[in-house]
Amino acid sequence: MVCAPFEELGDASKPVDSVCLRVSSVRDRDVQLFDTARRMRRGVYVSDDAGRPSRSLDALLHEIDPGVTSTIHRHSWDAMVLCIGGWGWTEIDGQRINWGPGDALHLPAWAWHRHGNEGTEVARFMTASSEPLLETMGMAIDEEAGDTPFDQLPTRPPYAESIEGNDPFAVRINRLANDQEQRRAGRLHTSWDDVELLKSPRGQRTAFLLDRSIGYGASGLSMVVGEFAPGRGQKFIHRHPGEAWLYVLEGHGHSIIGTEPDKCEEHPWEKGDLIVVDHFLWHQHFNDDKERTAKLVRMHIFDSLLETMRALCYPLTLFEEPPDAHTAPDNQVPPVWPDETPRPTWP
Ligand SMILES: [Fe+2]
Ligand SMILES: [Fe+2]
């Protein structure tokens, strides 16, 4: 599906499907991997690069073979990495981080990075980045550096440091300097070994993998793992703005997704698939396995893009559940959760 030009977005006579992404899932088996000049393979879940354009986030799949080190590059957008299978490493501005399945990393804007695999099996990870958002604004820039050593590469763009004064010039300089200081000191890695899943009021167990609340300095990118108990699903159908991806880390189930609560279609999913929740689609996810839990990793742009939407759309309600959702009796007994949360496996 091709997105309509911007001028059609406000045209109520156009069907909703003609202006948005509206793909509801991308199966792992449909993601074709290609060899690339970076010495890695790349596949596309969602991106203009393969005919599934989006407005805020993309979603790519990457593989690197044993013994391979990729070339170095950097870009004006930032990206979050979810490690899926195998063991590898990533260097970010020369800082090496070893990773394994279930780990998350942040690739900050303008940070040089490359990946390597010193193991014996293929290492696989996916990324979700703010590239589409920056491309919309004409600010998406990619820079390739081949095999140039990190210490011979230019640093991230320098910025003006704080100055004395309360005039409008000083106020802006100081505000921006403060923001850059915090973002550039942000966290880069979450190891799966340190992830503690906690029960949420909505019946799942969840943990942030990458988010401002746990010390990351991303552009609002956020990644959270949610575990669904055997045979259970989300309590309520709901909708909210913003593109969101749900990568199926473990298990199998289905989601209902549609433009009205009573006009939803069922989309089955299994490990490796990406559930695509386009903005304002009603949706609800279910674990169909009666014995095992399922784990979905949700990725979206939260504290910048959604907060901006919230501010611009105020006082419209952006997070919605059907009016009768809260009156539904909850007779289910509390789920039994496994004691261990081992690293995910691939395949
Ligand atoms: Fe990159
Ligand atoms: Fe949701």
CATH architecture of the largest domain: Sandwich
Mean pLDDT: 91
Range of strand content: 25-35%
List the ions, cofactors and other small molecules found in this model.
fe (ii) ion
Poorly predicted regions = 1-10, 15-19
Helical proportion, percent range: 10-25%
**How many angstroms does the end-to-end distance come to?**
30 Å
CA gyration radius, whole angstroms: 21 Å
Biggest sheet descriptor:
7 strands, antiparallel
CATH homologous superfamily label of the largest domain: Jelly Rolls
Q: Provide the spatial order of strands within the biggest beta sheet.
A: 1-20-17-22-16-15-14
Topology:
Blueprint: E1 25-26, E2 34-35, E3 41-46, E4 59-64, E5 72-75, E6 79-85, E7 88-92, E8 95-99, E9 104-107, E10 113-116, E11 123-129, H1 131-136, E12 142-146, H2 168-184, E13 189-190, E14 198-199, E15 205-210, E16 221-228, E17 244-250, E18 252-258, E19 264-270, E20 274-277, E21 282-287, E22 294-301, H3 302-313
Antiparallel strand pairs: 1-20, 2-3, 3-4, 4-11, 5-12, 6-9, 6-11, 7-8, 7-10, 9-13, 14-15, 15-16, 16-22, 17-20, 17-22, 18-19, 18-21
The site of one fe (ii) ion has 4 residues, from loops.
Could you characterize the architecture of this molecule?
The chain is mainly beta and 347 residues long. It folds into two domains: 31-157 and 164-184, Sandwich (Jelly Rolls); 197-318, Jelly Rolls. It has helices spanning 131-136, 168-184, 302-313; strands at residues 25-26, 34-35, 41-46, 59-64, 72-75, 79-85, 88-92, 95-99, 104-107, 113-116, 123-129, 142-146, 189-190, 198-199, 205-210, 221-228, 244-250, 252-258, 264-270, 274-277, 282-287, 294-301. The two termini are 30 Å apart. The strands form five sheets. Strands 1-20-17-22-16-15-14 form a seven-stranded antiparallel sheet. A seven-stranded antiparallel sheet has the order 2-3-4-11-6-9-13, with no helix packed on it. Residues 1-10 and 15-19 have low confidence and may be disordered. The relative contact order is 0.15. One fe (ii) ion (FE2) binds at residues 73, 75, 79, 107, 113.
